[in-house]
TrEMBL record:
Residues 1-37 are annotated as: Disordered. The keyword Transferase does not apply. Keywords: 4Fe-4S, Heme, Iron, Iron-sulfur, Metal-binding, Oxidoreductase, Thioether bond. It holds the Pfam family NIR_SIR_ferr. Catalyzes the reduction of sulfite to sulfide, a step in the biosynthesis of sulfur-containing amino acids and cofactors. Its cofactor is [4Fe-4S] cluster. Transmembrane segments: none annotated. Belongs to the nitrite and sulfite reductase 4Fe-4S domain family. Its EC number is 1.8.7.1. The keyword Secreted does not apply. This is assimilatory sulfite reductase (ferredoxin).
């Protein structure tokens, strides 16, 4: 039988790309967005849901559009990780929300931090997380309290607008932008301009999926541009002009890919327009048929940087961008700005480690007070779940270090405390399989006891599921949550191990060894065993990631 030729003029379904003519939704998420723009949910929250309560919330808003306002339902307490993939969303969720306050560029005043802390204390059971995207995330939020929370945040220039959803998420910037002498240029202005013009705009409120941006002139590449959807990295061209190198297509989750250089030089006054053009390419050409292929990294993998540049210039910018140089390698391997750094004005930036990002609202308020007492009320969040207080005079540095230490906020932490991150985990996240926050804290405390003289930077990232919110693929030791069998054959919380991931020169994702897994109870023993082997066999100055790249497999199991 011969199939008759296609004669219909209707566009083929393909990947559901708008630019190719197919605008009909191809999955429930796309239908949800077409039925009502996610931005419209704000007014329904104010007018209806906050007054009538959780049970009044439309399911399409509850599990979809409310993300556009930074709201996710949190996991119901007591549901084990083995049930995560079995239960329906309505069976996993509680009547409380996780809420993200977006902090573009990580920039805060002490007044803003007091408001953030007060919201946690008053409405979130005094729990807060400083995330690895420079946000603050709350838990235990009731829908009835959301309008008042918004009012307080907006009083200090903050919001939850598009902190989640298929939209431009928080825009990362160096927490020491404009502060350090050796930065290539200060990206504070271009971030602010881009946020002001496009965040909350219907122009980009329906993207195929999330859209993560970084803009930075930091010589340490602290915004981790290798794994963002779109990044602007500070460079100096051959004429001595400071501008940006454009990278597109980074992302982790279950299909990790590094961003690719587009090869153009972007002047500071062009950044907002080029960002909008890149975002438009994603909006119009991004794959919308399958959610698991709807990130820009899949389009970049198919197109390559040359085609992306051509489409960007010809169809959206309508002008050619000049070729540009690549950025030099990151100046320092550690990108967290922890410790005491000299500012170009002679004062000091004092960066300190929390407990894997977990903190209380009360302590955030205390930090705001310390920033006023020892500095000038300026605080920054980092992409490593850390905080920085700026403008500390030389004579006050050690007093601030001691004042922070009283609250277990460490300016000179151990390698393990400094290098350990964790995602939200089973405690609150509906996607998680294992608990992470407390386990990661217990892990670094145990390693400090067992290996007190460990003297090189080490990243240990603890993730509750495969989605890589804590970036397990780029850590020296990455733990991906899963259910594993213990010695008795029982299924218990555990982790798949990834080793030797790193960013920067010759960036690579962590190696998996025969699907090697450890139970939660075995993680400290495993880390100790592998790290002692590294101490015994390393060469002078060798990093752990390099050691892993040459190690025999038996050394790492």
């Amino acid at each position: 039988m011969t199939t008759p030729p296609r004669t219909s003029t209707r566009p083929q379904r393909g990947q559901g790309q708008w630019a190719l003519g197919y605008r009909e939704p191809l999955n429930p998420n796309e239908r949800m967005k077409k039925d009502s723009d996610g931005l419209e949910v704000r007014q329904r929250i104010i007018d209806i849901y906050a007054k009538a309560g959780f049970d009044s919330i439309d399911p399409g808003d509850l599990r979809g559009r409310m993300r556009w306002m930074g709201l996710y339902t949190q996991r119901a307490q007591g549901i084990p990780g083995g049930k995560t993939a079995v239960l329906e969303p309505e069976e996993l969720e509680d009547s409380y929300f996780m809420m993200r306050a977006r902090i573009d560029g990580g920039q805060l005043t002490s007044d803003a931090l007091r408001v953030i802390g007060g919201i946690s204390t008053d409405f979130g059971r005094d729990v807060a997380d400083v995330t690895d995207r420079q946000n603050v995330q709350y838990h235990w939020i009731r829908i009835e309290d959301v309008p008042e929370i918004w009012r307080r945040l907006e009083s200090v220039g903050l919001s939850t607008m598009e902190a989640c959803g298929d939209v431009p998420r928080v825009m990362l910037g160096c927490p020491l932008a404009g502060i350090l002498e050796d930065e290539v240029l200060d990206a504070t202005g271009v971030i602010a301009d881009t946020v002001a013009k496009y965040v909350g705009s219907p122009e980009f409120s329906n993207l195929p999926r999330k859209w993560k941006t970084s803009m930075s002139g930091c010589v340490d590449h602290c915004t981790e541009p290798e794994i963002d959807d779109v990044s602007f990295l500070g460079v100096v061209n051959e004429d001595g002009e400071a501008g940006y190198d454009l990278w597109v297509g980074g992302g982790l989750s279950t299909n990790p890919m590094f961003a690719q250089r587009i090869g153009v030089f972007v002047r500071p006054d062009q950044v907002t327009d080029v960002w909008a053009a890149c975002t438009s390419v994603f909006r119009d050409y991004g794959y919308r048929r399958q959610r698991n292929r709807a990130r820009i990294k899949f389009l970049m993998a198919d197109w390559g940087p040359e085609k992306f540049r051509q489409v960007l210039q010809d169809e959206y910018l309508h002008e050619a961008l000049p070729d540009g140089p690549p950025p030099p390698p990151a100046k320092h391997d550690q990108r967290d700005h922890v410790g005491v750094s000299k500012q170009k004005d002679g004062a000091n930036a004092v960066g300190f480690a929390l407990r894997t990002g977990r903190i209380s609202g009360s302590l955030l308020t205390t930090i705001a007070d310390l920033a006023d007492e020892y500095g000038q009320g300026r605080i920054r969040t980092t992409t490593q779940q850390k905080l920085v207080i700026l403008d500390v005079p030389d004579e006050k540095v050690e007093a601030l270090v001691e004042a922070l230490a009283v609250h277990d906020l460490q300016v000179r932490p151990s390698a393990f405390r400094r290098g350990t991150m964790a995602c939200t985990g089973l405690e609150f996240c509906k996607l998680a399989i294992v608990e992470t926050k407390q386990h990661a804290q217990d892990l670094y405390a145990e390693l400090e006891k067992r290996l007190p003289d460990f003297d090189v930077p080490i990243g240990i990232n603890v993730n509750g599921c495969p989605n890589s919110c804590a970036r397990f693929q780029t850590a020296d030791i990455g733990f991906k949550g899963s259910m594993v069998k213990d010695a008795n054959g029982e299924m218990v919380e555990g982790f798949q191990v990834h080793l030797g991931g790193h960013l920067g020169v010759e960036a690579t994702f962590g190696r998996k060894f025969r699907g090697h897994k450890v139970t939660k109870a075995e993680t400290a023993d495993y880390c100790e065993r592998v790290l002692r082997g590294f101490q015994e066999r390393r060469t002078d100055g060798e990093s752990f990631a390099h050691y892993v790249s040459r190690a025999d497999e038996d050394w790492l199991l």
